[in-house]
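Q: Structure for this?
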Amino acid sequence: MEKGMVFLHGLGTICILIGIPFFVSGAIGLLRFPDIYTRLHALTKADNVGLGFVVLGLALQAEQWNTVARLLLIWLLVLVASSASCHLVARAALRKKIQPWSRS
Amino acid sequence: MTMSWLYSTAALCLLSAIVVGLLRILRGPTAADSMLAAQLFGTCGVAILLLLSKGLDWLVLQDIALVFALLAALAAVAFALRTWGETER
């Protein structure tokens, strides 16, 4: 392998390793947070950042351009889908008069 | 066709994250909490499939990840608009 390829491969490995803790913290937040709104916050934000890092790492290690394009497309789809569904679930919860959690 | 340790370890970590998230289904007071666990399953499943597709050098798994993402989105939208919006908690 060339030197540049080795560098990109290492950078991709680091990105994947950065991405994993975001997923784990999203899952822990889903388990620990007190109400539906805070759980939505933990899940939709942390997980998509984690997926972004994993996709970035895999894209840096990819061998063809069309793989990179497909990875980015999958990430964008997940991003749009999860923000839309987060909004819909939060709105449905508000209409059901579920009170947001507060520290009192 | 050996799988590099990085991809298999990362996929295992994501799998354990899914298991932790699934505990929420047992605890969750409302149906929406169970739906959130399904959302977590979708996102983590996409990441696992992408990692395995690289690790096993099996590009078909990327298309399967795309289908997972689509299905997770449709499930969440159908849940929020049709099921949970109308029935009781």
